[in-house]
Amino acid sequence: MRKLSFLAMMFMALSLPMTMVSCGDDDDPAGEQGGAGGEGEGQDDGDDELVDGGGSAGVVQLDSIRQKMILEETANELLSRVDAADFRVAAGLLEFVDQNSADGSDISKWADAGLELCCANATDSLVEMVYSMSNFCGRFELRDGRWLLSPDQVGYLEFNFTDGEGEPCSLRLVCSGYNTLIHHASFDEYNAEATNTAGQSVRVSQRVENSFVLPERIDVTLTKGGSTVATAELASAVQLRGGDNEFDYKRDAVDLALAVSVGEYRWAIDRIAFEAGSSASYIESLSKAGEQLIALRAEASGDITNDSDLKGDITVLELSILDRVQVKGRINSVEQFVANLENATYNERNETLFRDYLDRANQLLEMGIYYYQDPQPAASIKLYPFAAYDYGGERWYNQPVITFGDGTSYSTFESFFSQDAFQSVIQRFTDLAADFVGLVNPDANIAW
């Protein structure tokens, strides 16, 4: 859904600098200026802060310098909790399999046979495919570089091998619980080809109808020497209320949860839920040894089934880092918010109309930065107008701008999260990234 995707990307753009500081240039591009609009409007001269004569009611009085310190400390603490060496065992097993798998012909034949079982019906105009994990069960063993399929009939999929240290290893996928057959028109594919019939070129079209058997639960486990190295879990609950296997956004409900664990780390999409087109929710988290490092949550309500006529509110937008820094907000009336932004862009050559539509959008946007679980924001985030100059003259666009609680300054993201101000975070992230690259490619010559 285009508008929901647009809003999600906008929130991530607003939130991402809180966790991962980019290596940007402090200076604005040549020929650009910006300002908050209204009394006390300022222009970005390339400094970190912009003078703003207006105060910010209802926010914690922390100036930009103190907030940069808190953000830098939090980012460094977050990065210090992640060690690439913790993933060495899992990465080593994957590398071993990659380096020692020379012949996968049995796997290819097995997969082709499974696909044939998934074909429920086939004609010149229609192919009906029903994909089920029950058609892809089997147990493979790696011997002398070749994957061999066991003749035993099993109800799961498993790959066994002995690693370079002589320890038995296994990757097993198991499905369990209730199976739901589900189809939606967006799953389908269309093939077209031209054939020659009686000297005439005839275009033949074929629809491939793809349906899926979704298990209530899928579990994937990687072990080494009898100890668990990594796991992946998918839990689903689908309610198809039409009496058939067709999924309808306006009628049905879906609730999914996914979790991947490697050692002490656990990344999870704790919930993706969609209820009859009237509500949706998304919860994601990253934790280590039971301590939550990052959490992201979003909720929406209203009529969210029609992308061209989206109605309702995004009631919750929340990003939390180590429970120290939170970016929280909401968008009232998604339909009006998106329309105002689109109208502002349409009037990018008309400053008065551009500012008017952007002001209307900002009235529907509530977004703040919070520290240490304080109920009051220390800074707010709004979309501010900026001007650029090209062959057509003056052109207006918007950028998110931070307004601080002391009421004395504001800054663009680019200037606030500058390379100079967050050099320690950038260096720590660069080192961590190099460590991860070294896990899979020890000989890599990394130059950032």
* Number of discrete helical segments: 8
Q: Which band does the percent of strand residues land in?
A: 35-45%
Structural class: alpha+beta
Order of helices and strands: HEEHHHEEEEEEEEEEEEEEEHHEEEEHH
Instruction: Round the Cα radius of gyration to an integer and report it.
Output: 27 Å
Uncertain segments of ≥5 residues (pLDDT<50)?
1-33, 35-57
Reported for the largest beta sheet, the result is: 21 strands, mixed
Mean pLDDT level = 82
Compute the separation of the termini in Å.
36 Å
Record field, number of beta strands:
21
Overall form: globular
Q: What is the percent of helical residues?
A: 10-25%
Descriptive tags:
8 helices, 21-stranded mixed β-sheet, 448 residues, single chain, disordered N terminus, alpha+beta, 42% strand
General description of the model:
This protein has helices at 2-15, 64-80, 88-100, 105-118, 334-346, 351-364, 413-416, 423-440; strands at residues 33-34, 50-51, 119-122, 126-131, 138-143, 146-149, 157-162, 168-183, 189-197, 200-224, 227-239, 253-262, 265-275, 279-288, 291-301, 313-321, 325-331, 365-371, 379-390, 393-404, 409-412. By secondary structure, it is α+β, with helices and mostly antiparallel strands. The chain has a 21-stranded mixed beta sheet that branches. A hairpin with a 2-residue loop joins strand 5 (138-143) and strand 6. The longest helix is centred in the last third of the chain and has 18 residues, at 423-440. 23% of the residues are buried. The model is unreliable at 1-33 and 35-57 (pLDDT under 50).
